[in-house]
Amino acid sequence: MKHSIKKLVAGTALALGALGAFAADPIKIGSVLSVTGPAAFLGDPELKTLQLYVDDLNKKGGVLGRPLQLVHYDDGSDANKANGFTKRLIEDDKVDVLVGGTTTGATMSSVPLAEKAGIPFISLAGAVVIIEPVKKWVFKTPHTDRMAAEKVFEDMKKRGLTKVALLSETSGFGASGKKETEAVAGKYGITLVANETYGPKDTDMSPQLTKIKTTPGVQAVFVFGLGQGPAIVTKNYKQLGITLPLYQSHGVASDEFLKLAGPAAEGVRLPSPAQLIPEKLPANDPQKPIVTAYDKAYKAAYKTDVSTFGGYAYDGLMLAVDAIKRAGSTDKAKVRDALEATKGFVATSGTFNMSPTDHMGLDLSAFRLLEVKGGDWTIVQ
């Protein structure tokens, strides 16, 4: 008996020694991400980013003298599973803040739980419905689908393109994108002369594109989706010999899109955060040091290209850490209030200025308009 107690004491001493300077309880960051399934190309870099920077912050002494602990679950790109895991994070794991929700569907299934529990929740998904109407405990880091449509229409207007065909995915992101695109078109003098959809698992969009091709007067095509779908559309576009200007949403703002679409992507334009083009930003751009450092750290750790989706996770974690520091505690109400009061916070997605009426805090200047030239991204001036 004495022997086993000795062993237990020794083991505990070792464990405490391993924690080093940290005597305090950890600050728990809870996360439900789509690390597998159709949205894995979003969720995988998000998880890698959170792991990378939680480790990095701990090496630098943690936050408020406490270590950070990442508690994460993979929802397999299933919104129903996201709900169950969020419940577990809140009730069993007793996390201090939630950073996650890879997709709009997963986020919206978790929102009521965060609201009811009174826990700050920073979503990494795109749709405007996440923050409109404002929900007390919910914030988000990516630009909204409405902003993406406005950035695209701004450019179309400059080019004198007024008759546009919309092709959107029937997923949460695509459906919301469709709704927001329809809502803001008139503001920019744009008429949607064709309005087609495709399913997230469709492997050929030629029928929809053939309809668009034969629509009288169409001057440009705008695709709203994420994952492999938009790349398939881009390839089909080329195969059908359509030469109209082709625009995509920020749902494909990733080097993965260039790989999937190949040479067919030439000339495609889309709105994107600065994260895709760190080396192309002017020297005086306030985001340049942030996106360059993230690009370097991520590539060094994982030997792979960064994506804007990983950037959304970086922003979510850093906003949470900044709010905890300003609140001086992990008291959930104080952290929530600090998040809402975030001003001038420069991150990978832009400069965040939140308020009681805006739980995202980004404006159109946070988007860069990019064009694919020679198989690489270029900034449209």
Automatic annotation (TrEMBL):
Q: Where is the signal peptide?
A: 1-23
Keyword list (alphabetical) reads: Amino-acid transport, Signal, Transport
Q: Of which family is this protein a member?
A: Belongs to the leucine-binding protein family.
> Per its record, how is this protein called by name?
ABC transporter substrate-binding protein
The yes or no answer to whether the keyword Signal is present is: yes
Q: What species does this protein belong to?
A: Dechloromonas agitata
Q: What's a BP term from Gene Ontology annotated to this protein?
A: amino acid transport
Query: Residues in domain Leucine-binding protein?
Result: 26-374
Q: Cross-referenced SUPFAM superfamilies, in alphabetical order?
A: Periplasmic binding protein-like I
